[in-house]
Amino acid sequence: MVSTVAAGGNLLLDIGPAADGTIPVIMQQRLIEMGKWLKINGEAIYGTRAFIKTKKNEEINEETNKSVFFTRKNNEIYIICLNWPAKGIVLKGITPGNMVKVALLGTDKAPSVKGSGGNLFITAPDLTPDDNQIAYVFKVSGLLN
User: Fold this and answer.
1) Around Cβ 28, how many Cβ atoms within 10 Å?
2) CB pairs under 8 A, 24+ apart, for 116-120?
3) Span 45-81, pLDDT tens digits
4) Which terminus, N or C, of the chain has the lesser number of Cβ atoms within 10 Å?
């Protein structure tokens, strides 16, 4: 779902019922997990579009790699990490102003943000095992006009 939305696409989720009209338990579990994740992180999915900046400052619709994806809604950028970014996130070629704010959706623990050498460095907060998610979403405000 994340890679599809981050590439500018739409997701069609097909769940086929059994012959008696029931939904198989494995599909129920996946739908419930997806719903829980979307309840916390849905703002990075619903109503967004793909976002990546090129050197020419033009947006293009493609994913950066296999585990980090970007979406955009209004003046906010969402960084969706399929794996916990233990070494942090580096956004190259971005000089942050004083108004840049970064939040990790689903927790009140704030990531640290630092600008240096034309790059923006985001260090994830420490989380407990109870905070584990399917994917982690960082909401960046104040970079776009």
Assistant:
1) 12
2) 118/92, 118/93, 118/94, 119/90, 119/91, 119/92, 119/93, 119/94, 120/90, 120/91, 120/94, 120/95, 120/96
3) 999 998 866 554 444 334 446 889 999 999 899 999 9
4) C
Residue with tokens 């233990």: 86
> Is 44 buried (19+), middle (13-18) or exposed (0-12) by CB count in 10 A?
buried
**106 φ/ψ sector (left φ>0, alpha ψ -120 to 50, else beta):** left
Taking only the tens place, the pLDDT of each residue in 90-143 is 888 776 666 788 999 998 888 998 888 878 899 999 877 666 678 999 999 887
Architecture of domain 2-141 in CATH? Sandwich (2.60)
Cα separation, 80 vs 67, whole angstroms? 8
Instruction: Give the tokens for residue 79.
Output: 């960084």
Tokens linked to 92 = 């190259």
Of how many residues is the chain composed? 145
> CA torsion sign, 83 to 88 to 91 to 96?
positive
* 62 in Cβ contact with 36 (< 8 Å): no
Pairing mode, strands 89-92 and 101-104 = unpaired
